Fold Osteocalcin-like.
Amino acid sequence: MRSLLALLIVTLALAALCCCEKDPKEPSGSLSADSIKIKKEVANAFVKRQKRSSLYERYFEYYKNPMEQMHERCENYPPCDYLSDQIGFSLAYNRFFGRY
């Protein structure tokens, strides 16, 4: 509960800093998109990824299916990746790595 409260306070503090900061070049009423954005590193510091709860989802997060492994193998080999854009994945994979 304390971490949630701390996260809320940090978020509100960052929002207040972004909204209350005045730029002398701009009129007082308008906000530009640049004044609202924050850096990715700062955002990742207080926004955490939600953990998956079911065992089924955790299993498929760690282990890839064979088709996905073949796609990655083809993508990592530049001639196969180029040819898959031209004629399709299955034909390109068969040409370079044999039947799947």
User: Anything to note?
Assistant: The chain has a mean pLDDT of 78. The helical segments are 2-20, 33-36, 40-46, 55-62, 66-76, 78-87, 89-97.
